[in-house]
Specification:
12 strands, Immunoglobulin-like, four-stranded antiparallel sheet, about 230 residues
């Protein structure tokens, strides 16, 4: 009987030691601070960046979950039809990762055009920050270049898509016809007005999204790219 008890105790001791070793190895590999700061642990998985692409405290869909919105857009000026930009805004309290997200465009008929931009791996938008994606011809502040397609001066649709192709936010402007093909649209309820010549359409109040483009967007004679909409 005494031998059986000693054998059982030896097996339990070996198992306990193995578990401690396993836990230590796991913490050393994936946890930089023993579990004290989960946000910090996520941040060390990739290089930290600054400005609108800051990935400190990345939102993983938890308590800081938020919706990045298309906050303002301009489709050109009388002197430069390609002087266009799309401004994104993150109203939340955490950075939002945007690896492989896209800015997508549809014609007023619903026809899908080539992506305006695919965000590179590691991209994110910092909390309470603006991110301006613009053409080279745009003379104002920009954070990243639009690299494909183009927007119609009047009557078009723009959307921000996540890496799975889900529409995060969409804006239709001008007159939007019944969709071609599968009838897909990026309009939320009613389309916003088209941007004025040399100006933009912008959310007013800044960053507010009621899921009705006509209600949310107003024309601005002068754009406010990279800053709060007046």
């Amino acid at each position: 009987m005494r031998q059986r008890l000693l054998f059982a105790a030896s097996v339990y001791f070996a198992y306990a030691c193995a578990c401690v070793a396993c836990a230590t190895a796991t913490r050393d590999t994936f946890d930089s601070d023993g579990g004290a700061d989960a946000a910090k642990d996520r941040a060390v998985l990739g290089p930290a960046e600054t400005g609108p692409f800051d990935d400190g405290g990345l939102d993983d869909g938890g308590a800081c979950g938020t919706k990045v919105v298309i906050n303002e857009l301009m489709t050109g000026t009388p002197d430069a039809s390609q002087a266009e930009f799309i401004e994104l805004y993150n109203p939340g309290g955490c950075a939002v990762p945007m690896s492989d997200w896209k800015l997508s465009y549809r014609a007023s008929t619903g026809t899908l055009g080539p992506p305006l931009l695919t965000f590179p791996i590691g991209s994110s938008i910092a909390a309470k920050s603006y991110l301006v994606a613009a053409r080279e011809q745009f003379p104002g502040k920009s954070d990243v270049m639009l690299t494909g397609g183009s927007m119609a001066a009047d009557n078009g649709q723009v959307a921000l898509l996540d890496d799975m192709g889900k529409v995060i936010d969409g804006v239709g402007y001008g007159v939007i016809e019944a969709g071609a093909g599968d009838g897909s649209t990026y309009v939320e309820k009613q389309p916003a007005p088209s941007p004025p010549s040399g100006g933009s359409i912008a959310r007013h109040p800044n960053g507010v999204d009621t899921d009705d483009n006509k209600t949310d967007f107003v024309q601005q004679a002068t754009h406010s790219a990279g800053a709060e909409n007046p």
